[in-house]
Amino acid sequence: MDETARIEIAPIEILGAPIEVGTSEPGSLMGPAALRTAGLVRTLRDLGHGVDDLGDVSAAVAPEERGLPAVAAWTRALAARVAESFSRGALPVVLGGDHSLSLGSVDAALRHCRAIGKPLFVLWLDAHADFNTPETSPSGNVHGMPLAALCGEPGFEALFGGGDRPVLEPGHVHLFGLRSIDAGERALVAARGVDVTDMRAIDEFGVIAPLRRILERVEAAGGLLHVSLDVDFLDPGIAPGVGTTVPGGATFREAHLIMEMLHDSGLVASLDVVELNPFLDERGRSARVLVELVASLFGRRILDRPTPVIEATTASLPRG
């Protein structure tokens, strides 16, 4: 593709999801505010996109509530707002907030795809599989369960409010950057045929070949792609502002290349940016890195701006 070409992207609608009811670690509800403070909306507008910041979604949940009932309220509220974005022809970008927010965003994407007759694929950029169930989860935290719930595993029926809801095909889920998985979810991931590109594969083959294979599959199926970017996909030396750090994650340059390839594909229909915990961050460092990555997904090239200090100092950090 011509390096100067621009992919035509729908107007972007920003939704904050200040949710931490799916985790026991406080602080992720401040994630949307931190990403806005780091200049996400301004950066996307500077790239020439139409951007409408719709503010934060709210749910009728008491501050002390946790677990499945609280997550259910957030799931329904967020799914309704994301569905409205799709109905307006927009590309919804949901800022989190813990990873249980993806229950709402992906549910809305599934309903949108069913309405237009296209399959949905999910690229899960995460250190974890998030395929636990209440029976397999060592912690009981729902932010480690969204993919199992979306793929129709039992025990989650109350989350989506009943009715004829579409179920995510496990074979359409692509775990990318995996390096931490519980025994119970490991068995489920294998049994359900979820596609996995772990960090061992990335170390051996880089990000280009496995990501290209995924994008070619989505394109061949005429599908749309939902991208869910967890901060812990990145090495904690680059982005420490997350409650579930796992050493050996993606480098700054690997992550940027992934975003650039996603932009070039023209397949991304919706995006989550999750698990940013400013309370655990270092002077906004993780938020700034995430803004840079989102900018790359929406078309920023290396030649579009001066090389930031963060790239020069962290792109070659060793894993582990």
Task: Reconstruct the topology from this structure.
Blueprint: E1 12-17, H1 31-37, H2 40-46, E2 51-56, H3 68-87, E3 91-96, H4 102-116, E4 120-125, H5 146-150, E5 173-178, H6 183-192, E6 195-198, H7 199-205, H8 208-220, E7 224-230, H9 252-265, E8 268-274, H10 285-297, H11 309-314
Parallel strand pairs: 1-2, 1-3, 3-8, 4-5, 4-7, 5-6, 7-8
Helix pairs in contact: 1-10, 3-4, 8-9, 9-10
Query: In whole angstroms, how far apart are the ends?
Result: 35 Å
Helix count, DSSP H or I runs of 4 or more residues: 11
CATH first level: which class? Alpha Beta
In angstroms, what is the radius of gyration? 18 Å
* Global morphology: globular
Runs in which pLDDT lies below 50 for 5 or more consecutive residues are 1-7, 309-318
- The number of distinct structural domains comes to 1
Major beta sheet, specifics?
8 strands, parallel
Write the H/E string, N to C.
EHHEHEHEHEHEHHEHEHH
CATH architecture: 3-Layer(aba) Sandwich
Average predicted confidence as pLDDT: 90
Q: What level of helicity do the residues show?
A: 25-40%
The beta-strand count equals 8
**What kind of oligomer do you see?**
single chain
